[in-house]
Description:
The chain is mostly beta strands. It has helices at residues 2-15, 233-238, 396-400, and strands spanning 19-33, 41-55, 58-69, 84-95, 99-106, 140-148, 152-159, 181-189, 197-206, 211-222, 227-230, 242-248, 250-262, 265-276, 285-300, 303-316, 333-342, 350-358, 363-374, 378-388, 403-413.
Amino acid sequence: MKIFLALFISFTFLFAELELSGHLDVDSQAYLIRADAKHKNSFTLKQTLEFKYEKDDLTAFAKLYAQEDYYDFLSEDEHNERTFARLDELFLKVDYEDDSIQAGKNIKFWGALELRNIVDGFNPKEFRDDMFSKTNKCGVWNASYSHYTESAEITLIVKLNEPDQKMASYPYVYYFFPEFVTYEDKLESSHGVDRPSLYLLYSGTTETEYALDFAFIYEYGYDSQRYFTPDNPLNLALGLPTEFRQNAYIASKFMIYNTLVVDSTLIKLEALYAKVDVDAAVGDYSHVAVGFEHTVENFYKSAGLGLIGEYYNYRTYDGEKYSDLELFETMQNDLFLGLRYSFNDSDDASIVGGVVADFEYDEEVYYFKYDSRLGDSFRVGFDYYYIEPSKDEKTAYALLGRHQRVALNLAYYF
Length: 414
């Protein structure tokens, strides 16, 4: 990989003009309510650097990401283990008249819903970043071939390996496990981490009275859902030092995500069904989410108001294997109601927020986000989250504990 990266950079500097872009972020969070003994705030610097070269039908792209956590520069017992550098993307793409071929490492985004994209499982999430982030994901090595028609696309993707997911250490507020549990980031897999996974994607747009965007995905390979197992269950029950590892298994997975525009209303659907190959812990499951967003144009002067509603339902089909609780699934019977206020001004400012009600375990999440540009090069973001976890069940939010936080993000783009 290092040789490939050196050749890529050398080639682009010698033979072409290289486009360079990126952004620098200062991310500050204060935890007004948190579990005892965890840090009461966080201060993180983030850097993203992108290189792009285009010549005729060839595109070469690389993306580097790094972050530094304030506590990692203090004494060892304060460390969060959140300081790292990562190669997110490094790929070559060749475009033909109706086809394209791509190979390398990259990140894909799938889905249509506002709160959570349940089909967006191609890339593992970065556990060392804010758990509410939807964009910080780890790139994976893959090769793909795409064929295009006037209104559709069919893509075959071979994912070449299944990467580990590293995790922050205990003092960090979003480390879910108890202090006596340590996380071993070496992924346990049923067929080896280098076993390829196959994806077939068909997507397009219908030319009818109402605009329908659709996508169907079939996968055979390692599922994006993973589960944790302790090295010593007895130690775990007694509260003694225990090591947890993440496990990956093979499944056939059918996924769809669609959006339909009807006048001023956007109707959304995401759904999946996983047929799991024989695994001792996980059985077949489904996840379905439906939603809508109705926009009131010129709600106040030129501003628009969006009314959002989404419902999520998750089910497992083998009562003798892991349930949603043991799989740390947070959106199993949940309703999200929210608002989006778009100022439609030169700063592209917007406010979005709402409440998530869990009907299964009586949990509630409230959140509010503000985002805006400051001139041509700066962005500012503010958010607020409040979590009221279950009092009766060991859900993922119950492990985190009752939680309240405010955050400020300042970013410089170049």
